[in-house]
User: Which sequence fits this backbone?
């Protein structure tokens, strides 16, 4: 019985070493890449919408080149929330620090109803399209197979409304780029020597012209690290 207990203790210690090793694999120095999918809020504001119909005769299409010919609907609120996806890659310098970059596509903000600005052209729905890129420093703290992290750096957002959205004369409805601070935090779990799953909360800070972007996502990443367990330990 004493020998059996001794063997059980040795097995427990052995498995503990293996689990501890697994917890360190994905956070070791090395390159990684992955994808995230989740829910985003673009926080765009109410806008004036060109219905594409004549102001004096709503049953006919208007000519946007004629002043006051089009029926405009002010203060239309958009649907700002929708699915977003991010592709990212990075490098762990050690188990505590990494550098990461990514690109994200968002479901556009939609203003109702969809309209034909010109009946002889493709319909221009009142949408605002947004895409972002980021370069982030990432600070991590691992404990076992779990880790928590915070990251921050530079975000670049492309903001592009369609022509059915009418802006004041001193503003433009053409696409524009914005450089803003980006930051977030989250937690991760290493469920194999190379694969990691994470949940992340991200924010792209807004400016006077650009509303902030909020993004919550679940991600999977592959880490190109040496497979110690399976070769030497477990």
Assistant:
């Amino acid at each position: 019985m004493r020998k059996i207990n001794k063997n059980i203790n040795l097995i427990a210690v052995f498995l503990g070493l293996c689990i501890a090793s697994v917890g360190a694999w994905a956070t070791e120095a090395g390159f990684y890449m992955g994808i995230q999918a989740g829910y985003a809020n673009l926080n765009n504001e109410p806008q004036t919408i060109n219905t594409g119909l004549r102001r004096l005769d709503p049953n006919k299409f208007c000519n946007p080149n004629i002043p006051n010919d089009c029926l405009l609907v002010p203060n239309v609120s958009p649907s700002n929330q929708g699915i977003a996806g991010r592709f990212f890659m990075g490098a762990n310098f050690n188990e505590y620090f990494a550098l990461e970059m990514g690109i994200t596509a968002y479901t556009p903000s939609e203003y109702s109803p969809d309209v034909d600005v010109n009946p002889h052209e493709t319909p221009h729905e009142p949408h605002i399209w947004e895409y972002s890129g980021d370069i982030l420093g990432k600070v991590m703290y691992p404990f076992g197979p779990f880790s928590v992290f915070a990251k921050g750096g530079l975000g670049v957002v492309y903001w592009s409304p369609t022509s059915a959205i009418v802006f004041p004369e001193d503003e433009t409805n053409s696409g524009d780029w914005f450089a803003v601070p980006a930051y977030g935090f989250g937690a991760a779990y290493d469920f194999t020597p190379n694969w990691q799953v994470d949940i992340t909360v991200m924010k792209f800070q807004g400016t006077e012209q650009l509303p902030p972007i909020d993004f919550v996502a679940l991600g999977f990443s592959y880490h190109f690290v040496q497979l110690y367990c399976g070769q030497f330990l477990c």
